[in-house]
């Protein structure tokens, strides 16, 4: 394990953290999200099977999980490659690819994309939400789950020698499922052995991040090396958010480019706009948490690619960063969000 200390592990091997550049800490490049298909509203059934075309793009943006083909991002390797080249041209250096077991992880494709584009790609170890856990995974002990994650980092994932550089995104639901709790405990145990970064997908409830941190802490995790994803759809109350920030993990606003009238996965949530995300990030910076904020897009469906009229992997660099400057976020703070903080998180201790 000493060979990992002070390094970042990409799908092409270990690199010095100084080589990361601008980093998106939560993206997907090859995955299937069919596990989260939502049947469309009555009268819209034909749209679920229709080809993706211009006249359906707004409906698709509002109902991305009700279109079966839209969930098959793994079919778009060529388009993803083209976008990674655009991301690199826009100044991007690194992508953390958060696809874990349960989402059709494909580390061979990630390696191919890294080789062909020159973008550093970091693969995720571990398991997604309990609904995707196989009967075998559900039956495993914490020790067995720990061994799998450690092996994916030290030796390679999915029968390859392509190694993961983070654990996660580790999927959690609300209420938390028993197999998810075991995976969280195993994540903490694996991190204790590896001194590696971990990243969590919380349940869609304001108490979920607090519950997860408690479980991780009790199991011995290093919360300072832990990212809580999807904060933009999870904790809305400012006082509660600042209370959570005090626990010491990274707060990730990773749904930039995603705006819904009605959020299918939790209709009680009003998904914020990108402008609101920028203001929330600025508030956290103003409150002294500039060292603990990360941003990304979490692209995981076809309609978010530029090929299909979406924002693409370069959206933050091309559109959000300029708007952040307009809203008084200085370039040195932007560099913290996109360079220094990812570098600090991704470096093995």
UniProtKB/TrEMBL annotation:
<feature type="binding site">
    <location>
        <position position="26"/>
    </location>
    <ligand>
        <name>a divalent metal cation 1</name>
    </ligand>
</feature>
<dbReference type="Pfam" id="PF02126">
    <property type="entry name" value="PTE"/>
</dbReference>
<dbReference type="GO" id="GO:0008270">
    <property type="term" value="F:zinc ion binding"/>
</dbReference>
<dbReference type="InterPro" id="IPR001559">
    <property type="entry name" value="Phosphotriesterase"/>
</dbReference>
<protein>
    <recommendedName>
        <fullName>N-acetyltaurine hydrolase</fullName>
    </recommendedName>
</protein>
<keyword id="KW-0378">Hydrolase</keyword>
<feature type="binding site">
    <location>
        <position position="201"/>
    </location>
    <ligand>
        <name>a divalent metal cation 2</name>
    </ligand>
</feature>
<feature type="binding site">
    <location>
        <position position="230"/>
    </location>
    <ligand>
        <name>a divalent metal cation 2</name>
    </ligand>
</feature>
<dbReference type="GO" id="GO:0019530">
    <property type="term" value="P:taurine metabolic process"/>
</dbReference>
<dbReference type="InterPro" id="IPR032466">
    <property type="entry name" value="Metal_Hydrolase"/>
</dbReference>
<comment type="similarity">
    <text>Belongs to the metallo-dependent hydrolases superfamily. Phosphotriesterase family.</text>
</comment>
<dbReference type="GO" id="GO:0030855">
    <property type="term" value="P:epithelial cell differentiation"/>
</dbReference>
<feature type="binding site">
    <location>
        <position position="298"/>
    </location>
    <ligand>
        <name>a divalent metal cation 1</name>
    </ligand>
</feature>
<keyword id="KW-0479">Metal-binding</keyword>
<dbReference type="GO" id="GO:0141215">
    <property type="term" value="F:N-acetyltaurine hydrolase activity"/>
</dbReference>
<feature type="binding site">
    <location>
        <position position="169"/>
    </location>
    <ligand>
        <name>a divalent metal cation 2</name>
    </ligand>
</feature>
<dbReference type="GO" id="GO:0005829">
    <property type="term" value="C:cytosol"/>
</dbReference>
<feature type="binding site">
    <location>
        <position position="169"/>
    </location>
    <ligand>
        <name>a divalent metal cation 1</name>
    </ligand>
</feature>
<feature type="binding site">
    <location>
        <position position="28"/>
    </location>
    <ligand>
        <name>a divalent metal cation 1</name>
    </ligand>
</feature>
<dbReference type="GO" id="GO:0032098">
    <property type="term" value="P:regulation of appetite"/>
</dbReference>
């Amino acid at each position: 394990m000493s060979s990992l200390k002070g390094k970042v592990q990409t799908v092409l091997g270990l690199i010095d953290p100084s080589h990361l550049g601008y980093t998106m800490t939560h993206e997907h490049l090859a995955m299937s999200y069919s596990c989260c298909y939502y049947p469309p509203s009555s009268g819209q059934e034909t749209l679920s099977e229709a080809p993706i075309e211009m006249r359906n793009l707004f409906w698709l943006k509002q109902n991305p999980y009700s279109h079966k083909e839209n969930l098959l991002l793994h079919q778009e390797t060529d388009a993803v490659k083209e976008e990674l080249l655009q991301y690199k041209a826009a100044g991007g250096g690194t992508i953390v690819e958060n696809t874990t077991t349960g989402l059709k992880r494909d580390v061979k494709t990630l390696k191919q994309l890294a080789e062909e584009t020159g973008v550093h790609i970091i693969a995720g170890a571990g398991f997604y939400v309990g609904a995707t856990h196989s009967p075998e995974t559900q039956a495993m002990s914490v020790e067995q789950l720990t061994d799998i994650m450690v092996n994916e980092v030290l030796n390679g994932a999915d029968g390859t020698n392509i190694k993961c550089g983070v654990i996660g995104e580790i999927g959690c639901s609300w209420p938390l499922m028993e197999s998810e709790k075991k995976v969280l405990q195993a994540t903490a145990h694996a991190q204790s052995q590896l001194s590696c970064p971990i990243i969590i997908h919380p349940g869609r409830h304001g108490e979920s991040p607090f519950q997860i941190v408690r479980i991780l802490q009790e199991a011995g995790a290093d919360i300072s090396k832990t990212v809580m994803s999807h904060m933009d759809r999870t904790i809305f109350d400012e006082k509660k958010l600042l209370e959570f920030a005090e626990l010491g993990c990274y707060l990730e606003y990773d749904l930039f480019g995603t705006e819904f009238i009605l959020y299918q996965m939790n209709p009680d949530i009003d998904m914020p706009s990108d402008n609101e995300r920028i203001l929330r990030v600025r508030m956290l910076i103003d409150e002294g948490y500039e060292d603990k904020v990360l941003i990304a897009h979490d692209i995981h469906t076809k309609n978010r690619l530029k090929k299909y009229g979406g924002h693409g992997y370069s959206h933050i660099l091309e559109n959000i960063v300029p708007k952040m400057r307009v809203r008084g976020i200085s370039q040195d703070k932007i560099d913290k969000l996109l360079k220094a903080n990812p570098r600090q998180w991704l470096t093995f201790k």
